[in-house]
Write a structure and sequence with these properties.
single chain; about 475 residues; alpha+beta; eight-stranded mixed sheet; binds 2-acetamido-2-deoxy-beta-D-glucopyranose; binds fe (ii) ion
């Protein structure tokens, strides 16, 4: 065991060294596969799903950004027994709440399940970069939490995001969540597929949404998670009489879509510190003339790289993926949006869906059109890096079959559980890490220094090798 452990740590050091600064080399397929625990959901009586003490105590507390700029939050929770109060009391010192905001609640049914009372409250007019305390619930069963608002947007404002996807509620999910909570992450970019409650039947579907809300509360009550949706949120179940897609998700989770002039909660954008985050929906129409298409075109014009140098896109289905799982499912969105991703110099695109980890080189396939052939991705210094972080650890297990040989566009891939962090330093540099879950610790496994696509384009980079188009397995890698 010892020997293996030190072998793997040596391997890690080697991988980390090889990956520093977006580099040129053939892609790496890590052979490390560790499914630490069976991919089964944690039983409902486990303490990770414990309900808080007190009659009608608020549970499943989660917060998300509530406006475009970062001065508001939406605070959400569920009361199980009675509606109770939708008020949030808050202030800058503990137990002294100078302010309050009034929210509202609703309940819904899903098949034979009846939900508790779901509260959402917008808390706005917050100061930047300030620690707040807040209290929800009625006096005898009230609960208190805290959060820290982001600094005002500016080109050199440091900020650290976590990236988590396809989380579910297994022991592997728990490992991912706990490892993330040990990181310096200040907000989570969630790339879809939350609870996997849709794998259950009838009233258990709602019950597993509830348990998931309690499961993630140790993080979601204290820092915003920015939501994007995955296929497990669709829940289109004619057999159960449930025909309205995204019902549970939309009842339980909020997004600040109106603040970015979106007409739908499933796609939106926010500015946070030095990043402009665009969230897309893989499962809503996006071809030409649709609302999402029109919105994205306009939102890309609103991006101000002088203020928010880092342009990040979240979407559930990966656009470049070399796993057998979900291979080419991102092709339709690629053909519609890839041009814009390149012309607007998007820094990185995070996706989930595939239950493994993968990072691409900067490549594009925008020269291809159906009449010309030549349909291979080629190195493109204006293109984003595509990163799949669908490895949160849900009950469906790992996607362990990568296509062989590793395609040119794939820089690093590994089929094990984990999460990523993106540590933005300033307008030119961001330190990126994918952390594998390992026995009792997280192991930084894929580490890259990203140079900003807008500000760092004149920094010295290795020249692109342009002559790679079809068939060549020599590195697409270029810089
Ligand atoms: C919502 O709650 C009310 C009052 O408790 C209850 O009568 C109603 O059936 C619930 N609605 C749904 C859709 O579950
Ligand atoms: C397809 O590509 C060819 C060759 O690059 C170009 O001449 C043509 O205009 C393109 N067609 C469209 C519709 O973009
Ligand atoms: C930006 O951050 C990087 C990494 O910490 C550092 O090397 C670089 O000097 C910084 N640039 C500026 C302009 O401060
Ligand atoms: Fe998915």
């Amino acid at each position: 065991m010892r020997m293996w452990a030190s072998f793997f740590s040596l391997l890690n050091v080697a991988l980390v060294l090889m990956n520093v600064i977006e580099h040129g080399s053939a892609g790496i397929t890590s052979t490390f596969i560790r499914a630490e625990w069976a991919a089964a959901d944690i039983p409902l009586d486990n303490k990770v799903f414990e309900t808080p003490n007190g009659y009608n105590a608020p549970q499943q507390v989660h917060i998300t950004q509530g406006d475009y700029e970062g001065k508001a939050l939406i605070i959400s929770w569920v009361t199980p027994d009675a509606p109770g109060s939708s008020k949030v009391q808050f202030g800058t010192s503990e137990k002294q709440y100078q302010f309050s905001a009034e929210g509202s609640y609703s309940n819904y049914s899903f098949s034979s399940y009846k939900s508790g009372y779901i509260h959402h409250c917008l808390v706005d007019g917050l100061q930047y970069d300030t620690k707040y305390y807040y209290k929800i619930g009625d006096d005898d069963s009230g609960r208190e939490f805290r959060f820290h608002t982001p600094p005002e947007s500016g080109p050199d404002v440091p900020y650290t995001f976590g990236i988590i996807g396809d989380l579910g509620q297994t022991y592997n999910s728990l490992s991912t969540l706990q490892h993330y909570m040990e990181s310096e992450g200040q907000a989570v970019l969630f790339v879809g597929d939350l609870s996997y409650a849709d794998r259950y039947d009838n009233e258990d579907i709602g019950a597993r949404w509830d348990s998931w809300g309690r499961f993630v509360e140790p993080s979601t009550a204290y820092q915003p998670w920015l939501w994007s949706i995955g296929n497990h949120e669709i829940e289109y179940f004619p057999k159960l009489g449930e025909l309205v897609p995204f019902k549970s998700f939309l009842q339980r989770y909020r997004t600040p879509f109106e603040a970015s002039q979106s007409s739908n909660p499933l796609w939106y954008a926010v500015r946070r510190a030095s990043a402009h985050i665009i969230v897309l929906s893989s499962y809503s129409p996006y071809v030409k003339y649709t609302p999402q298409y029109i919105w994205l075109k306009e939102e890309l014009e609103r991006v101000d790289r002088e203020k928010t140098p880092w342009l990040i896109v979240l979407v559930h289905v990966p656009i470049y993926n070399s796993n057998e799982a979900h291979f080419m499912e991102g092709e339709c969105m690629r053909s519609v949006f890839e041009n814009w991703f390149v012309s607007h110099k998007v820094d990185m695109i995070f996706a989930g869906h595939v239950h493994a980890y993968e990072r691409s080189y900067r490549i594009s396939n925008i020269h291809y059109n159906v009449s010309t052939g030549g349909c291979h991705p080629i190195p493109d210094k204006s293109a984003p890096v595509y990163i799949t972080v669908g490895d949160g650890g849900n009950q469906e297990g790992l996607a362990a079959r990568f296509r062989d040989p590793q395609p040119d566009y794939s820089a690093f891939r590994e089929s094990s559980y984990g999460h990523s962090t993106l540590q933005i330093k300033n307008r030119t540099h961001a330190f990126y890490n994918w952390n594998r879950n390992d026995d009792g610790k997280k192991v930084p496994t894929d580490s890259v220094v990203f140079l900003n696509q807008y500000w760092a384009s004149n920094l010295q980079r290795r020249k692109l090798k342009r002559n790679i188009c079809r068939g060549s397995l020599s590195s697409v890698a270029a810089f």
